[in-house]
Input
Amino acid sequence: MRAAEIADQLTTVLVTEEEIREKLDELARRVESDYDGKELLLVGVLKGAVMVMADFARALNRPLEMDWMAVSSYGAGTKSSGVVQIRKDLDTDLTGKHVLIVEDIIDSGLTLSWLLENFASRGAASIEILALLRKPEAAKVHIDSKYVGFDIPTEFVVGYGLDYNERYRNLRDVAVLAPHVYS
Ligand code: XMP
Ligand code: MG
Output
């Protein structure tokens, strides 16, 4: 689905499909060199990171393992609750693994700070974060994210995996949801 097809529900397209592809390629080259000779485990955070994971993993020209974690920090609305719940834990033992958490977006940072703390006790050799998007002005806690695609304004965005009430995930671009849709 392209942004033009639902233009009445969006205000601005912030990042296009093409820009995402170029950025993920660029990040993939960095990750290939940073993790040269190391065992790499990508951990995708469901469900928002599904698209980033699919495209980023295929941009990487190297062996890797993939696992998924499902947590919830948002209800049906557009504000972070700060309360994180594990809905699906990893299947993989992190001992000795170089873990790269793949996220769609860092908003308040609360979800990732909780995840980092949770992973820290599982014996990983290293833990880093790759996030396609980051809202710098919304940060409530500082998150050291080594690989960030795009810094965006503090607005609710949808598309490329990001949803509002489970809709818009299949939008190819990342766009600002028009306030009339959720108010
Ligand atoms: P925090 O605030 O903990 O939030 O960094 C992280 C999670 O919240 C979701 N999130 C969004 N989802 N549009 C969305 O569709 C947004 O603008 C947005 N901001 C945060 C997302 O699941 C992220 O992993
Ligand atoms: Mg998410």
Q: What stands out?
A: Residues 18 and 173 are 8 Å apart (CA to CA). The chain has a mean pLDDT of 94. The chain has one domain: 17-152. The domain at 17-152 is CATH 3.40.50.2020 (Rossmann fold).
